[in-house]
Amino acid sequence: MLDSPRASHKTTLATIAASAGVSVATVSKVVNGREDVSPETRALVEGLLAAHDYSPPSARRPNTVNATVEFLIDGDFSSYATTVVDGVVEAAREAGTAVVVGLMRDQRMGRYPVPPRSWARSLAQTGRTGVIVVTGELTGAHVDALAAVNVPLVVIDPLNMPRREVASVGSTNFTGGMSATNHLLAQGHRRIAWVGGPPGSQCNQARLHGYRAAMESAGLAPAPEHIVNEDFRYDAGRRLGARILAGPDRPTAVVGGCDSIALGIMEAARTLGLRVPDDLSVTGFDDTELAPMAAPPLTTVRQPLREMGRVALRTVLRMAGGERLDSHHVELATELVVRESTAPPR
User: Where is the HTH lacI-type domain (predicted)?
Assistant: First the structure.
C-alpha cells in the first residue's frame, strides 16, 4: 500500500515544485497569493498543496513576537551597515523580535563560503523568521533556497537584483546623484569628475546616471577619464582620486559614490598638496557618522539609513505573517546636506 502524501510532515515548496514541474519561485507566488501566475498553473499547484496538506510557516506561526530575524552584511561592518542595523534593531525592539547580526561572506574571500541550500537550511533549522541582507550580491540560487524553506527575504541597497519579485528597500539614488552634481554646477564648477562603486551595482549605476543627467542638462560632456568605478571603499577613493587629480585637465570637483569614497578622494587631494574646498570640492553619498567628522566636514547626499533598516524589518515580518506586499520595492527620499567640502572654484 502506498503512503498518502499527507503522511509526510516535511513537505517543502521544492517538493511541490518538483511534482508540478514548475520553479520554486512559482510555487511561492501561489502560496503568497500573487496574481502573476496562470490559472492553470495555480490550480495545479493548489491541488498539490492540498494533497500534501501543506501549510506555510506563517500559518503555523501567526505572530512574530519572540521571532528572530537574521541581518546579514555582505562584506565589511562599515559605518553605512552599522547605521542601517541600528534602524533594524529599533524596529525589532518595537515588534518584540530578536535580531542576529552576521557576515554573509568575508569580502577578502571573494565568494560565499557556504552553498545556498546549506545556508538556507541552516537558517530554517535555527528558527529564523526572515532574512535581511544589506548591500548583498545574491544569486537566484540563494533566493530559491530561501523560498524552498519558507524563509522570507528582504534586501537593502542590493548590488544586484537576482529576481524581480525579491522585496527590496533603497533610496532615490538617481535623484541623489543628480542633486549632488547640480549643487556643484550651481557653484560654478564645470570640470566635475565621478568616482563610484562597483560598476554592476544597481545603486551605483542609479547615482552615476543622476550625475550624467545633471551634466547633460548643463550641456557638459565629462572626459571619459573623469568617470571611474571600482568599489565602495576608502582605499578605492584614495587610489582612483589620486589618478584623476594627477592627470591632465584636473577637475575642480569630484562626486563620490559614497562617503568612504569621498573621504579617500579628500586624502588623495591632501597628499597631492591640494586643499579642500579651495582647490577641490568633494561630495559624498550616505551621510554616515563619518561625514560631519571629516576635515573639512563633508557635503553629502543623506540616505535615511535608519529608516531603511526599520522599513526592511517591518517588511520581512509582514511577509513572515503571510501578508501580501503592495510593492516589492520601496524607495525612500534622499536629501542633500551641504557642509564645508564644497565651494565655488577659484
Answer: 11-64
pLDDT digits (tens, 9 = 90+) for 41-100: 888 988 888 787 775 554 444 355 568 999 999 777 788 999 999 999 999 999 999 999
320 closest CA partner among 201, 163, 154, 176: 154
Instruction: Yes or no: say if 202 and 161 are a contact pair by the CB < 8 Å rule.
Output: yes
Residue the block writes with cell 495545479: 44
Write down the domain spans for the chain. 5-54, 65-170+305-332, 173-304
> Is 173-304 CATH 3.40.980.10?
no
Query: According to the CATH classification, is domain 65-170+305-332 in 3.30.450.20?
Result: no
For residue 42, the SS3 value is helix
Would you identify the CATH topology of the domain 5-54?
A: 434 Repressor (Amino-terminal Domain) (1.10.260)
Query: Judging by DSSP bridges, how do beta strands 335-337 and 299-302 pair with one another?
Result: antiparallel
Who contacts 327 (Cβ-Cβ below 8 Å, separation ≥6)?
Answer: none
Strand partners, 282: 254
